[in-house]
Design brief:
CATH topology of the largest domain: Immunoglobulin-like
Number of helices: 8
Bound molecules: heme C, copper (II) ion
CATH class of the largest domain: Mainly Beta
Shape: elongated
Order of helices and strands: HHHEEEEEEEEEEHHEEHHH
CATH architecture of the largest domain: Sandwich
Strand order of the largest sheet: 3-2-1-5-8
Distance between the termini: 26 Å
Length: 326
């Protein structure tokens, strides 16, 4: 088959790098919510670690004591010791910790004047909508640095949970309900989030990338995404689009500006600029995309996309068309 080089797309190197370098440690916070949670985590770890050590020391003392013959053992049941260790000390430690935790939890409530993003969990991928900007993407969230983001979340099937360890806490996505999660990112970069509620076979492969851009780049990104869905004129792209529509892909997927309006799978209007495929399974490039379309079950067994039977001569046009959808 003759390979056509007339269609060019952005090099995938940057996306692959973003995908591979995504940060995901709760002890390396990159946002105010994550910092509060990390601080609380350290306080808890030190306080409870100290208590654990104290208990171990007391246990060792008690074991040594019981080795001595009964006659020389000191009497048991020291009231002051019990009152101190059983009541006063726990109260002094637990009450301030409880108050501190409640205050942190209160601060983690979403501010009202934030960028709104609607996140819907499905087995095993994420639908991402910007209602005010009228943009739909999947499996990744673009946000401006330094601006609060209000995630309004729900689920299309079972309970999922959104957790970006280096950005904020963990919130469940519940069918029939809307839960709200607040996050803000301090530095440009990519951050990995993960479904944190067991939701079936491919639960572990339900990642989500949070990509934070400087505000001006975010504005440019928004404009670019809003202008998608234009008619294609290149013959290769036209052939690819026909193949997409004829193979029934549009029953499950939406590509804006075409007859494909399916809602079963991720929106593919911007699939060409996705950092990964299958919610973090592989970095997105020409080869992995062709592999995914040929047999998605090989890359992510049990996922809800069937293998396709695209004609050999349509393969290159179809993949080129999808890669061109940025
Ligand atoms: C029966 C519904 C169905 C059909 C038909 C279908 N898909 Fe999918 N597709 C899905 C689902 C569901 C997913 C998400 C799978 C996952 O990640 O768990 C998906 C994922 C994808 C992805 C990866 C998207 C991403 O953001 O990671 C691509 C690309 C894709 N499909 C292309 C196609 C093409 C091309 C066709 C036609 C040859 C097609 N699909 C047919 C349901 C379908
Ligand atoms: Cu899940």
């Amino acid at each position: 088959m003759k390979i056509d080089h007339s269609v060019q797309f952005e090099t995938p190197a940057k996306r692959i790098q973003e995908f591979l370098e995504a940060k995901s440690s709760a002890f390396q916070p990159f946002g105010p919510a994550a910092s509060m949670i990390a601080d609380l985590g350290w306080i808890m770890l030190l306080a409870f670690g100290g208590i654990f050590l104290l208990v171990i020391v007391l246990l060792v003392l008690a074991l040594r004591r019981s080795r001595r013959p009964a006659a020389v053992r000191p009497p048991m049941g020291d009231t002051i010791f019990i009152a101190l260790g059983g009541l006063i000390l726990p109260t002094l430690i637990l009450v301030p910790l409880l108050i501190h935790t409640l205050l942190v939890t209160k601060k983690l409530e979403a501010p009202a004047d934030a960028l709104v993003i609607r996140l819907t969990g499905f087995m095993w991928w994420w639908d991402v909508k910007y209602p005010e900007q009228d943009i739909t993407i999947a499996n990744e969230i673009y946000v401006p640095v330094g601006q609060p983001v209000r995630l309004e979340m729900t689920s299309g099937d079972v309970i999922h949970s959104f957790w970006p360890p280096s950005l904020s806490g963990k919130t469940d996505l519940i069918p029939g309900q809307t839960t709200v999660h607040w996050l803000e990112v301090d530095e440009p970069g990519s951050y990995r989030a993960q479904c944190a509620e067991f939701c079936g076979l491919q639960h572990a492969r339900m990642a989500l990338m949070v990509i934070a851009l400087p505000p001006d780049e975010f504005a440019a990104w928004t404009t670019k995404k809003q202008n998608a869905g234009v008619e294609v004129h290149d013959p290769i792209l036209q052939q690819g689009q026909r193949a997409f529509l004829n193979e029934g892909c549009g029953e499950c997927h939406t590509i804006r500006g075409t007859a494909a309006q399916g809602k079963v799978g991720p929106d593919l209007t911007h699939i060409g600029s996705r950092s990964s495929l299958g919610a973090g399974v592989v970095a997105n490039n020409y080869g992995s995309l062709a592999g995914w379309v040929a047999n998605p079950q090989a890359l992510k067994p049990g996922n809800h996309m069937p293998p396709s039977y695209v004609q050999a001569e349509d393969y290159h046009p179809l993949i080129t068309y999808l890669m061109s959808l940025e």
